[in-house]
Each structure stands twice: as structure tokens, then as C-alpha cells.
């Protein structure tokens, strides 16, 4: 069964190439010349949340970083490297943090079951719950509380993006850059703008505003 699947995905690749070339004979030659995506997408690793497909984007239009529960962690060199390259080299104009309802990482953070190594990652999500514990605990319906936790987690990751020296330095230099927080509905296909759209240091709590020496 697994070998059939492997053969299938190789065949799918050939069909995809043929289809693209039938539309545009120069498609891959043009794509190989470089990338200038206007958007960095920070999303969940969940296989049901494909960045390009959700927003109808073509290859070359979205720079993507994905991890469990779309987290922005200040010590994560992988995420920071992607962010630095996107902002300072590719000069993206938008960064979207997209959470999704039904997120397994967020669900795990609501409980205490040990899963393994991922427990250490889940702890960062638990920290978000603790930050909003009073509000979340007032929601009696567990499913509704789960959905709201997905939303506040995505919002907090936008704030954490704004706290990075990478983003703040870009804003200080007058670079056009806006951060957004979204959630995606697996059962509907629609995204929801969570209303956290930040485009300057002034929108960040003063304690997090970095002072750069000239």
C-alpha cells in the first residue's frame, strides 16, 4: 500500500509539470529566476492547512514557515531565520499568522496528557492559555473555549512577532510591513481576520519597544 502511494505522488508530479507546461511553456524557467513574494505565512504544520491553496496563491507568491500550532517563539532560530530572510532580503509587505480551528497542538495544551518530546513545545502554548486563563475559564462550553483559545493564540503570536528586533527594525527604517492574525475553518474553508493588524512600533506596549542606537 505504501509503495503504491509513493508511486502515485511521483506520477502526480509528472502530471503537474505537464499541465503547467501546457498552459505556459516558460513557467518553470521563469520560476527559477528568483522569488519576490509579498507575503510570509506562519501557519500550523497540520496537513489540512495548505497556505497557497487557502488563499489561491501561485508558487512564488508566498514564503512559508510552519510548525505545531503556528507559534512565534523568541528563541526559535528556525522561525527567526525565516522571518529575517523574509523581511530583510525578500522585503515582504505582509506577515500572516494563521491558526486553525481543531488544532491538535492547541487542544493538547488544554489538557495534561504527556505525548512525548512535543510536551516541551506544547508548554509554550500553555503559557498563552495562562495569559488568558481568566477569560477562557469563563467559557463553559468546551468546544467554544477551544475555538477561542485558537483565536487568542494566533493573536498572541502576532504580538510576539512585533516584539522581535527584526520587525521593529524594519518599522524603524520606514519599511512597509503589516502583521495580521487569522484563523482558518477546516469545516468551511474560510479564513477570519482576528482584528490584530499591526504596522508600526507605536501599536506595541512600550515595554517591548526596542531603542536602536544610530
Q: Can you characterise this structure?
A:
Keywords: Lyase, Metal-binding, Zinc. It is an enzyme of class 4 (lyase). This is carbonic anhydrase. The mean pLDDT is 94. The radius of gyration is 19 Å and the shape is globular. The chain has 214 residues and is an alpha/beta fold. It is built from nine helices and five strands. It has helices at residues 2-23, 27-31, 51-55, 77-88, 104-109, 119-131, 133-137, 142-163, 165-172; strands at residues 39-44, 62-67, 94-100, 178-184, 191-193.
Strand content: 5-15%
Mean of residue pLDDT?
A: 94
Helix content: 40-55%
Low-confidence parts? none
- In whole angstroms, how far apart are the ends? 61 Å
Rounded to the nearest angstrom, the radius of gyration is: 19 Å
Widest β-sheet, arrangement of strands: 2-1-3-4-5
Q: Helices and strands in order, then pairings?
A:
Layout lengths: L1 H22 L3 H5 L7 E6 L6 H5 L6 E6 L9 H12 L5 E7 L3 H6 L9 H13 L1 H5 L4 H22 L1 H8 L5 E7 L6 E3 L21
Parallel strand pairs: 1-2, 1-3, 3-4
Antiparallel strand pairs: 4-5
Keywords:
214 residues; alpha/beta; five-stranded mixed sheet; 9 helices; 46% helix; 14% strand; globular
Provide a compact summary of the structure.
The chain has 214 residues and is of the alpha/beta class. Helix content is 46%, strand content 14%. The longest helix has 22 residues, at 2-23.
